[in-house]
Design brief:
By secondary structure, this protein is an alpha/beta fold. The chain contains 14 helices and 10 strands. The strands form 2 sheets. Strands 1-7-6-5-4-2-3 form a 7-stranded mixed β-sheet, with helices on both faces. The structure holds pyridoxal-5'-phosphate (PLP).
Length: 346
């Protein structure tokens, strides 16, 4: 299939990950994460984040988010999240399922971002025994609509969470894109602001599969290994998740690829700007572009084989760029949109 803009997980495996995968395939290694690759990946994260932290590897982001929230909450607790958060809209109730019923309390906020005011309003809405007790704030960086919390915004949200004694979970399915865009250190975007746990995405940035769960607050990681195993998230051949991850971390490819994806989205947005009928829905600050297009154009593109989602966020066409997006393919999409417009009745 030609390269598509439906999701950054339509893309293949990047060369740095493949190279490491092949290296890890020499001979045997201990199972269930007892291997050198897994050890080295965890050490690499401690180096990258400039702190001692607990690292676990799981198969996907839904598992990472859900198991973290289950670890942070009792069944009678609640998690404050933006109404467009992946944990609410795209995980089929897994956070509630794995936490045995912890409830998501949803806040609004422009551009997919929670605000200190929204958090405070939810906390103050009820404080009686009949309502699940807020325990965690979950933030997505970059957000589900391709925007970014600035470090100042993140700092304010985290300070509010701490003020109310709430733990902070960060869904970093595209964490690399956020680091590439904001040009700060991973430490500055996480534990230095009070983030307790980060789900660090790999799949969307060139890995075959796998996400890292990173506990900066190590006390919260107690027995997390058992939780992963019980949930079917302890890979027996863990080295094949760890090695590709290590490959992109050691070579710097994780950032390089994210910068490329972000730059591709910026170029795509710029080209869409040449089309008066195309209206951008959000400022494209990472690797996503959300655009409104006439329905007839959307149908024509689909008929021609272009794939994209229209159910994410507030609707519109979501176009994702990845580590391997090419200018040629972006130009081809723009040309297809222009052709469809010129053939559609005014
Ligand atoms: C893709 C994504 C995830 C993880 O999804 P999986 O399909 O379970 O790997 C989590 N959060 C966000 C914001 C995502 O975009």
């Amino acid at each position: 299939m030609d390269e598509q803009f439906a999701s950054d997980n339509y893309s293949g495996i990047c060369p740095e990950a493949i190279a490491a995968l092949i290296q890890a395939n020499q001979g045997s290694a201990p199972a269930y994460g007892e291997d050198d690759w897994t050890q080295r990946a965890a050490d690499r994260f401690r180096q990258l984040f400039e702190t001692d932290c607990e690292v676990f590897l799981v198969f996907n982001g839904t598992a990472g988010n859900s198991l973290v929230l289950a670890a942070l909450c009792q069944s009678y607790h609640s998690v404050i999240a933006h109404e467009l958060a992946h944990i609410e809209t795209d995980e089929c109730g897994a956070p509630e399922f794995f936490s045995n019923g912890a409830k998501l309390l949803l806040g609004a906020g422009d551009q997919g971002k929670l605000t200190p005011e929204a958090i405070a309003a939810i906390v103050h809405r009820r404080n009686d025994i009949h309502y699940p007790k807020p325990k965690v704030v979950s933030l997505t960086q970059p957000t589900e609509v391709g925007t970014l919390y600035s470090l100042t915004e993140l700092g304010a949200v985290c300070a509010t969470a701490k003020q109310y004694g709430l733990k902070i979970h960060m869904d970093g399915a595209r964490f690399a894109n956020a680091i590439a865009a904001l040009d700060c250190t991973p430490a500055e975007m996480t534990w230095k602001l009070g983030v307790d746990v980060l789900c660090f995405g790999g799949t969307k940035n060139g890995l075959p599969l796998g996400e890292a769960v990173i506990f900066f607050n190590k006390a919260l990681a107690e027995d997390f290994d058992y939780r992963c195993k019980q949930a079917g998230q302890l890979a027996s051949k863990m080295r094949f998740i760890a090695a590709p991850l290590l490959g992109v971390l050691e070579t710097g490819a994780w950032l390089h690829h994210a910068r490329h994806a972000n730059a591709s989205a910026a170029y795509l947005a710029q080209r869409l700007g040449e089309i008066p009928e195309a209206k951008l829905l959000f400022p494209p600050q990472a690797n996503a572009v959300f655009v409104e297009l006439p329905p007839v154009v959307i149908q024509t593109l689909r008929d021609q084989g272009w794939r994209f989602y229209t159910f994410i966020g507030v609707g519109g066409v979501r176009l994702m760029c990845a580590w391997n997006t090419t200018r040629d393919r972006i130009d081809a999409l723009i040309a297809a949109i222009q052709r469809a417009l010129s053939h559609s009745p005014a």
